[in-house]
Write a structure and sequence with these properties.
single chain; about 130 residues; Rossmann fold; 4-stranded parallel β-sheet; 3-stranded antiparallel β-sheet; 7 strands; about 35% helix; globular
Length: about 130
């Protein structure tokens, strides 16, 4: 991804598709990596992450981006600042979350999302 980012013009959008995103951890992980690599301001201006899944219940879990302390215990320390306390849990910061678009998508029937710089489909391949 660093080479892909360096090859882009300074204001050119960065588009990522997390196909089969399940409960969203993959989409939020790539958001943290991109915000860390690009800087938060650049990330907010340029990045769109399309997180899709066929399971509407999984998307309902993913959208709020709220996790328990156990859920985020595996998050590396350098990314801890991307979460803020929320009613005894931890929410992924809204300033970064707003660049992630969740939607229902059936990979076998629906047209793919086009012009993406990065396609992540780990959950689908499992």
């Amino acid at each position: 991804m660093p080479q892909k980012l360096h090859a882009k013009r300074p204001n050119e959008p960065v588009r990522v598709w997390s196909a089969g995103c399940a409960s969203g951890e993959e989409a939020y992980s790539v958001a943290m990596l991109l915000a860390d690599a690009m800087g938060e301001q650049d990330y907010r201006q340029r990045v769109k992450i399309y997180a899709t899944d066929v399971d509407e219940d999984a998307l309902t879990t993913a959208r709020p981006a709220v996790y328990t302390s156990k859920d985020i215990s595996a998050v590396p320390e350098r990314f801890a600042g991307y979460f803020e306390p929320a009613n005894g849990r931890f929410a992924f910061r809204w300033s970064l979350r707003r660049g992630i678009i969740f939607g229902r998508h059936n990979l076998l029937e629906d047209a793919p999302i086009s012009r993406v710089d990065l396609l992540i489909c780990r959950n689908t391949l499992m």
